[in-house]
Amino acid sequence: MTPGPLPSVDVPDPRGQAEPSSGSAPLPTRLDVTAPGPDEPMAVVVAGPAGANRRELIAGLLGIDAATLAVPPGSNLLVQHAATATRAAYVPGYRQPHSYGADPLAAGPALARPPRRVELSLPDPLLRHFAVVDTPDTGTLGVAGGRVLRDAVGRAGALLFVISADQAFSAAELHLLAEVARTRVEVFFAVTPGVTGPAPGDGARAQDRTASGRAGSARPLDPVSVSIEAHRAALLAAVPALAPARWFPARRAELPHLRRALVNWAAGEVLRRGSAHPPVPVGGHGRVAVLAGVEPGELADGIDRQVRACARRIRQHLALELANIHLRVVQEIVFGVGCAGLPQMLDRELEALSLLATAQCDEAVRGLVDEAAARVFGAPLAEGVRRRIIHAVRWGLADHPDAPGLDRVLLVTSTAGVAGLTGAGALDALAGLPGAQRDEVLPPVGVALNGGCWQHWRAPGNDDPNAARSWAQRALREVELELSREVSRRFEVIRLSLGGVLADAVDHGILLA
């Protein structure tokens, strides 16, 4: 039976809906721009509208041919340092990357679907300081793409927004920049010469220049410099917090100034990240005594109640988010991208859903560890003690029969089903921007569309909006069921492993990790 339409609801805070548990921590209900961790790779994310010549700007910074930076539409390009030039495509549904050829004239492989990212390695000295990430045009991102971009910017540490002299900021771009402005992310702006007319706000100035020029008293008008003033004024009217951001004309003669500013940021960011996180946290070594009077039975019951409550809350969040995804997908099928654009749009929605589910699982597990460990060792829990417990819980997962399948990728098929693929390589292929090695208990959640979906909906005969809506509804329902089972399975193994680690500590009177 085909399920009924999914309702439209905003994601509430479900703390009052879960069964009572002491001190349940709130889960993130949206993807925010987060502060980068100390081990996250240094990167500058480049974003902007179509027609702003971002690719030419990056090529000028690196001194290469712009054709080398070509990637399929919708894919991220990660440019990083290496001794030899290579290029590889990371495609969901595969455990190994595809060789993509560093030669811009060489034809790439026939991929079943666009990669989430293409990695280009170059022996350029600038890339020793930071990697460069070119993202899809901001006008094509939609709601989910904006969330994914904000997540990448937060982990990278810097955003370079590129706009041309004859363009204006859209409402979605101003929203993105307002979200970034609330964080410690460094923001740079580059303005490229326009190609379709005078710069914004140029008319009156041009007339004044013409009149003065006849008198021989004015210098030639610089459209880029004028447009920088106009763009900055328009931006600050909407996002005053970005007043400290630096602006650069994106012309070849001025590119060394932009390059120098990015290198200076990277040098300061390295020091800031290192000083904010000491290498040896308090409590990382030594004996940690157990509090007197801890009953193993009560401890196990408390962990069980908390685990069940956390799993229920996450399942509720994801079900509500999938309902909203369904409505956005239907709207785009009917009024937006149509059937041919359905795979790209839905895959981006599932990428944002994966990041949200991962953040919720990580936050819930951290809360479980903190609350359960506080009953055994007392509160507040030192950071070093907490890391020792988390590492012990991670090791304990290996004893559970379901543990080897926790690094599982859910792939939506052309028949609206969901297939599974396990392995660290399969998860890595889903990342638009790979990060540092995770120090969390659980691996990330991964959901994507397989290549068959692209082949099916881009075929000339499959352009029926009603069929596309029905397929999307069935596919999202299957994703909801699989994610619900996955969340329950993950927290069951957490319950067993965390309970075992703390029970051993109670039996021996000290933390054994």
Could you please describe the fold and organization of this structure?
- This protein is an alpha/beta fold.
- 45% of the residues lie in helices and 12% in strands.
- It contains twelve helices and twelve strands.
- Helix 3 (171-181) links the parallel strand 7 (157-164) and strand 8.
- The longest helix is centred in the last third of the chain and has 44 residues, at 465-508.
- Residues 1-23 and 197-218 have low confidence and may be disordered.
What's the quick description here?
The protein is of the alpha/beta class and 513 residues long.
**Beta strand %:** 5-15%
Q: From the helix content, strand content and strand pairing, which structural class follows?
A: alpha/beta
Shape: globular
Rg result: 26 Å
- Tally of separate helices: 12
In quaternary terms, these chains amount to single chain
Helical residues, percent: 40-55%
Order of helices and strands: EHEEEEEHEHEHHEHHHHEEHEHH
Query: What does the main sheet amount to?
Result: 9 strands, mixed
Number of strands: 12
Mean residue pLDDT? 86
List segments where confidence is low: pLDDT < 50 over at least 5 consecutive residues: 1-23, 197-218
Strand order in the sheet with the most strands:
4-3-5-2-6-1-7-8-9
How many angstroms does the end-to-end distance come to? Answer: 51 Å
Topology:
Blueprint: E1 43-47, H1 54-62, E2 76-81, E3 86-90, E4 98-99, E5 117-122, E6 131-134, H2 142-156, E7 157-164, H3 171-181, E8 186-192, H4 203-214, H5 223-238, E9 246-249, H6 255-276, H7 296-335, H8 342-377, H9 383-397, E10 408-412, E11 418-422, H10 424-428, E12 446-449, H11 451-457, H12 465-508
Parallel strand pairs: 1-6, 1-7, 2-5, 7-8, 8-9, 10-12
Antiparallel strand pairs: 2-6, 3-4, 3-5, 10-11
Helix pairs in contact: 2-3, 2-8, 7-8, 7-12, 8-12, 9-12
